[in-house]
Amino acid sequence: MTTPDSPVIRILLADDHALVRRGVRLILDQEPDLEVVAEAGDGAEAIALARSHEVDLVVLDIAMPRMTGLQAARELLVLKPGVRVLMLTMHDNEQYFFQALKAGASGYVLKSVADRDLVAACRAAMRDEPFLYPGAVTALVRNYLDRVRDGEEPPERVLTPREEEVLKLVAEGHSSKEIAEMLFISIKTVHRHRANLLQKLGLRDRLELTRYAIRAGLIEP
């Protein structure tokens, strides 16, 4: 809890449902130390608003159009290294939870209990303390034990941010020409990234890349 002399935590809220944003804003704005200063409807808009607003904390929905909350989190932390990020989601999903942590999020809050957990998660994030929803510790331990048993290396350590961008766009069905135009790179570079993805991940074709992208939380099934 902040003291009366502490500055108000300025929050950017991003969710593609206006009704959800309204409800979350009501929860946050009734706290004296929390203030929503900007709202976005997707990840790309959140990044644009972060450029034009002074914010301390960004609350991102995971599943949003144009750019997922996970992708936006990575970009925001590069754009503003000092900002804190919380993921807000309806998905009690271990895969999304781990992706959120790897993206640099300070916490993962379920929408179903946002009225109970969100305020505490915001304050914890500003203290540089991770916020784990109930059940997350069990998931962390189980995931770790599974990886040790299977001898797996976390896949996110394998891919560069650019390769991940190409992977998402390939999985969404974009052609090499479209990807080149969207990322401002040459078609030859797209082909090289795609070949690297297949080699690094041990996959054979677009279908397997798409399945991997779903498992990695880059696109929704």
UniProtKB/TrEMBL annotation:
UniProt KW Cytoplasm keyword: no
4-aspartylphosphate sites (modified residues): 61
Any one GO molecular function term: DNA binding
One of the GO BP terms on file: phosphorelay signal transduction system
Matching InterPro entries: CheY-like_superfamily (IPR011006), NreC/VraR/RcsB-like_REC (IPR058245), Sig_transdc_resp-reg_C-effctor (IPR016032), Sig_transdc_resp-reg_receiver (IPR001789), Tscrpt_reg_LuxR_C (IPR000792), WalR-like (IPR039420)
Residue span(s) of domain HTH luxR-type: 152-217
SMART domains named in the record: HTH_LUXR, REC
PANTHER family registered for this protein in UniProt: TRANSCRIPTIONAL REGULATORY PROTEIN NARL-RELATED (PTHR43214:SF24), TWO-COMPONENT RESPONSE REGULATOR (PTHR43214)
UniProt keyword tRNA-binding present: no
Keywords: DNA-binding, Phosphoprotein, Transcription, Transcription regulation
The name this protein goes by in its record: DNA-binding response regulator
Domain Response regulatory residues, every copy: 10-126
